[in-house]
């Protein structure tokens, strides 16, 4: 494995927790490259059918991994996606699972047009810490961190914390 000058970061969590907002702002502040896997899949049509129940395309995880493989090897990537267990463990130096209070999350998802089963299942996913548990199983425990993401102050705190982590990583690894 070649030596990376900049770390790869995974931002994950239930839809609506603030991954995209955090990822884009983090990229601006650090110069790392932000990748929204949903957008990447849409641009490259990296799908394997359509889910009628949730009214959304089904991600072709293998094609997504193939698409990202070369870029991830160079380092300096911020990857944003609500799933995390299909990415190769070796890709990430740190994993941040964003967590949001259920009432806040409900309102965010409702304002996005989520209804019925899709809305309920995403709220339950947050209640049962599904993404956090998935991350803990897929990656070394010591690189998985939960961050609260309820209000603008949380966003600022999270940005400061991650920027500090990146700076330390770069000192330690260059």
TrEMBL record:
Binding-site positions, ATP: 16, 18-21, 112
GO CC field: Cajal body; cytoplasm
GO molecular function annotation: AMP kinase activity; ATP binding; ATP hydrolysis activity
Membrane-traversing stretches: none
A Pfam family matched in the record: AAA_18
Listed InterPro entries: Adenyl_kinase_AK6, P-loop_NTPase
The protein's assembly and partners: Monomer and homodimer. Interacts with small ribosomal subunit protein uS11. Not a structural component of 43S pre-ribosomes, but transiently interacts with them by binding to uS11. Interacts with COIL (via C-terminus).
Reported function: Broad-specificity nucleoside monophosphate (NMP) kinase that catalyzes the reversible transfer of the terminal phosphate group between nucleoside triphosphates and monophosphates. Has also ATPase activity. Involved in the late cytoplasmic maturation steps of the 40S ribosomal particles, specifically 18S rRNA maturation. While NMP activity is not required for ribosome maturation, ATPase activity is. Associates transiently with small ribosomal subunit protein uS11. ATP hydrolysis breaks the interaction with uS11.
Name of this chain's protein: Adenylate kinase isoenzyme 6
Source organism (scientific name): Megalops atlanticus (Tarpon)
Gene that specifies this protein: AK6
């Amino acid at each position: 494995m070649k030596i990376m000058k900049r770390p790869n970061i995974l931002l994950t969590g239930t839809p609506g927790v603030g991954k995209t907002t955090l990822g884009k702002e983090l990229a601006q502040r650090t110069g790392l490259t932000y990748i929204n896997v949903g957008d990447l899949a849409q641009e490259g049509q990296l799908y394997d059918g359509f889910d009628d129940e949730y009214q959304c395309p089904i991600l072709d995880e293998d094609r997504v991994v193939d698409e990202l493989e070369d870029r991830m090897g160079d380092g300096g990537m911020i990857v944003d996606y609500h799933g995390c267990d299909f990415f190769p463990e070796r890709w990430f130096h740190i994993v941040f699972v964003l967590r949001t209070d259920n009432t806040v999350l409900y309102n965010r998802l409702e304002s996005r047009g989520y209804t019925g089963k899709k809305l309920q299942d995403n709220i339950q996913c947050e209640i049962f810490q599904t993404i956090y548990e998935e991350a803990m199983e897929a990656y070394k425990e010591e690189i998985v961190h939960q961050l609260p993401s309820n209000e603008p102050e949380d966003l600022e705190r999270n940005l400061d914390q991650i920027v500090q982590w990146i700076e330390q990583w770069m000192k330690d690894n260059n």
